[in-house]
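Colleagues,

For the teaching module next term, I've prepared a clean inverse folding example: a structure given as tokens, and then the sequence designed for it. I'd like students to try predicting residues themselves before seeing the answer, so please don't circulate the second half yet.
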């Protein structure tokens, strides 16, 4: 599970470094050579393609995390709206799932 966190962190660090390099005002000749190399290099094109695939992977993980966050809340709401005053056996599981999804326990007795 930490592999994609590490990859995401490395990507963010690379973005910050690249932003810092691009924001500093180099001389015109250096800037022209850098942007010329970035626009025509096949290595940069391969890195760009790899980053597109990586961002698709990160989007899929984000959607999965959102689903994992919403599922326990939806199950708790379904259990509450059942109309029965009895405590559900799954209540402790729902609390653990809420804690895991960083929702907290709002209905703690």
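(Answer key — instructors only)
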């Amino acid at each position: 599970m930490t592999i994609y966190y590490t990859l995401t962190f490395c990507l963010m660090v690379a973005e910050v470094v690249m932003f810092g390099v691009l924001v500093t005002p180099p001389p015109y000749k250096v800037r022209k050579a850098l942007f010329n190399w970035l626009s025509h290099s096949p290595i940069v094109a391969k890195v760009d393609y790899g980053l597109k695939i990586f961002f698709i992977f990160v989007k899929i993980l984000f959607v999965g995390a959102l689903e994992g966050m919403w599922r326990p809340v939806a199950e708790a709401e379904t259990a509450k709206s059942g109309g029965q005053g009895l405590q559900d056996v799954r209540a402790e599981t729902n609390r653990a799932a809420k804690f895991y999804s960083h929702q907290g326990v709002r209905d703690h007795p």
